[in-house]
Design goal:
Elements lengths: L2 E7 L2 E6 L3 E7 L3 E8 L1 E5 L4 E4 L4 E4 L4 E7 L6 E8 L1 H9 L15 E3 L3 H10 L11 H18 L3 H5 L10 H8 L6 H7 L4 H12 L3 H18 L5 H4 L8 H12 L3 H7 L1
Antiparallel strand pairs: 1-2, 2-9, 3-8, 4-7, 4-9, 5-6, 5-8, 7-10
Helix pairs in contact: 6-7, 8-10
Length: 271
């Protein structure tokens, strides 16, 4: 069945996927807290994979790349609540803390949050909101975000250092970033933004380094990774097409055959 998403305001979202398996890319522009209500969530980053089960919660930092694989479990669909900690609310919150000094740093990983009554009661209090026949008042939405910030600060000593960072991505090493994140299927504009470049500058710098366009290079890299997974790791096409940046199996098979002259299935059978 189709994905059901209730979005009273963009900051607080209830999502329910009754599909057996659903895949999506995530590049969050805001820090987000995610609570898995049922099912399982697999989060794949460039260098690490996380599994979150029913009742588990984590902070997904802003401007991080990940692939999300949502799966039902124990005859229940995947269901989750996502609370986005918007820049406006965070800035207003820390404006009142301006007498306190925080050493800002960017986290390079998802942060699992320990189970406890504060988080449990916070998410339980929001479930009735999704039965409303009208939009959640913005004032209440902002209050819930402030409550989430206060809870995070109380259960994790490093939160102030992360949440008080309001800087934009700065210009970083393009080659290191692309070699680490090429398997993520997102717009070229987003690759540019996350490397601290405008689209024009990104394409220009990319051409200087690689001698080709980002689109051609990305396709080549993803297909090479897919061939390695099939030939050397003995994995099945259905297991790796999502992880290598393709949206569906048919497109993956078509592109693979166009590049190598045989389909992924034919390569698997030859092993």
């Amino acid at each position: 069945m189709a994905v059901r998403q209730i979005n009273n305001y963009a900051e607080i979202v209830f999502t329910c996927s009754e599909a057996v398996h659903q895949n999506s890319e995530l590049v969050a522009e805001e820090h987000s807290i995610v609570r898995v209500l049922s099912g399982q969530l697999k989060v794949i980053e460039s260098n690490k994979t996380y599994f979150f089960e029913t009742g588990e919660t984590f902070l997904f930092p802003k401007n991080r790349l990940a692939r999300l694989i949502k799966t039902g479990k124990d005859d229940l669909p995947y269901r989750a609540i996502i609370v986005k900690l918007t820049q406006d609310v965070l800035k207003a919150f820390y404006e009142h803390k301006k007498n306190e000094v925080f050493t800002v740093f960017k986290t390079d990983a998802i942060i699992p949050l320990s189970k406890g009554p504060l988080l449990d009661s916070f998410f339980a209090s929001m479930l009735p909101y999704f039965d409303l026949e009208y939009k959640l008042p913005r004032e209440l939405s902002e209050l819930k975000i402030q409550e989430a910030i206060a809870i995070l600060r109380s259960i994790n000593d490093s939160m102030d250092h992360i949440l008080s960072d309001f800087s934009e991505p700065h210009k970083i090493n393009l080659v290191e970033f692309m070699e680490r994140n090429y398997m993520f299927n997102m717009p070229i504009e987003k690759f540019g933004y996350l490397t601290g470049r405008s689209l024009t500058t990104f394409k220009r710098d990319f051409k200087k380094v690689y001698g080709t366009t980002p689109q051609k290079w990305l396709m080549q890299k993803r297909l090479e990774l897919a061939r390695y997974q099939l030939a050397e790791k003995n994995r099945k096409p259905s297991e790796i097409y999502l992880e290598t940046g393709f949206e569906n199996l048919s497109h993956f098979s078509y592109a693979f055959k166009k590049q190598f002259g045989f389909t992924p299935s034919e390569l698997s059978k030859a092993k």
